[in-house]
Amino acid sequence: MMTKEEKEKLENHIKENIEKLKKDIVSYKQLTRPIAPDNAIGRLTRMEAISSKSINEATLRRAKQTLSKLERVLKMADAPDFGLCRTCEEPIPFRRLMIVPETDLCVECAETVS
Question: Assign residue 83 a region: left if phi > 0, alpha if psi is -120 to 50, beta otherwise?
């Protein structure tokens, strides 16, 4: 079971991650703008730009998904089962929650799901 101090630390950590993700999402959106055909750039450079745009789009999707999960976790922070594994219902170690706050599985259950 998490102590009150651990819970507060985790909540603050989640809030910091949410703010960082929101800033990152703004940056990723700028990097995923359409690439206008431009006579000034060569074929290889244009292909690299398109490839880079695809990578940034995937990163943007992951950031949005993580943001959504973190916001959901933060809303559930006061629930009595907060920090418990959804499979075995054992407490998820605090250190794991600090690394992956959006997780709802302990390490053992996460390994069996993979």
Answer: left
